[in-house]
Design goal:
seven-stranded mixed β-sheet; 9 helices; GMP Synthetase, Chain A, domain 3; Rossmann fold; 24% strand; alpha/beta
Length: 302
């Protein structure tokens, strides 16, 4: 943290239903991958902070899990992580896609009525819709009566991002730089490494497998022959899922490892020797003690 430098600074929560582009936006803003992305919903499980710093502003973006009605203990954790963040920030960005409101966004919109800080409606993926359709979409959200700003953007194309940052600057209070200007996330490296492995599982495996997986980095502190040795365990819930991740002759696990290693080396800036194991942990998503063991600890919510 830089002492005695007064700028606009604060914490901004990104909320919205799964797969609306929150992680993509945060990665774009900080200029580097700090949150994994996937075409499959419910990719983000923990609160992850990305730090944007300019000459006159520092914004700590909190990328929350997508809000949806809970069914499992893990789902309940993810919803509480999202909702708890709304009471700890200076601004909330409610991200939606350019389509009709739907029940999920109705649910989130009602939650946001209780928020005391300013809330912006951020309409993402506007590059995929005719501009004439935007105004009716914006008008449909006016019934919630609590949005201070309505901002169309595209997190993949960079459309509207400068307007978004200017508007955030207008609303943030004067404050210090909370983090060093070069820092882009508050998460430790082993967490980011585990997430990069999970990202490849999301991208490479069948629909029923990804959300039954968790990744835990067991060791990441030893260099052997000039390479950082990383050992990680992939947990699944069923033997069949283990078979899919390992693949015929170990082919799928090898591909997950190759793709993950490239991403990890880019993140860490050094050569990596990555070793992966797959273990079955039955019904782990509904087991509070196991969830705590692999890092989904309710202490993170405080």
């Amino acid at each position: 943290m830089t002492e005695n430098k007064k700028i606009k600074s604060g914490f901004v929560a990104l909320v919205g239903r799964p797969n609306v582009g929150k992680s993509t936006l945060m990665n774009y803003l900080v200029g580097q991958k700090v949150a994994i992305t996937s075409s499959k919903p419910q990719t983000t499980r923990n609160k992850i902070s990305g730090i944007y710093t300019s000459n006159d502003m520092q914004v700590v973006f909190v990328d929350t899990p997508g809000i949806f009605k809970p069914r499992l203990k893990l789902d309940d954790y993810m919803d509480k992580a999202s909702i708890s963040s709304l009471n700890e920030v200076d601004l909330v960005l409610f991200m939606v896609e350019p389509d009709e409101i739907g029940k999920s966004n109705e649910y989130i919109g009602d939650l946001l009525k209780k928020v005391k800080v300013p809330v912006f409606l951020v309409i993402n993926k506007v590059d995929k819709v005719n501009p004439d359709k935007l105004l009716p979409i914006i008008d449909s959200y006016r019934k919630f009566e609590n949005f201070k700003e309505y901002l169309p953007i595209s997190a993949t194309k960079g459309i509207g991002i400068s307007d978004l940052l200017e508007t955030i600057h207008k609303y943030l209070p004067d404050g210090p730089e909370y983090y060093d200007p070069d820092q882009i996330t508050d998460r430790p490296e082993y967490f980011l490494v585990a997430e990069l492995v999970r990202e490849q599982i999301l991208k490479l495996t069948a629909q029923e497998v990804p959300h039954a997986t968790a990744v835990k980095v067991e060791r990441m502190n030893q260099h052997v022959r000039g390479k950082l040795k990383i050992e990680a365990t992939i947990y699944v819930e069923k033997d069949g899922q283990k078979g899919i991740i390992i693949g015929k002759g170990g082919k799928m696990l090898k591909q997950i490892g190759i793709n993950s290693r490239k991403q990890i080396e880019a993140l860490l800036g050094e050569k990596v020797n990555l070793r992966l194991w797959v273990k079955v942990q039955s019904k782990w998503r509904s087991d509070p003690s196991f969830l705590k063991q692999i890092g989904y600890d309710k202490k993170e919510l405080s």
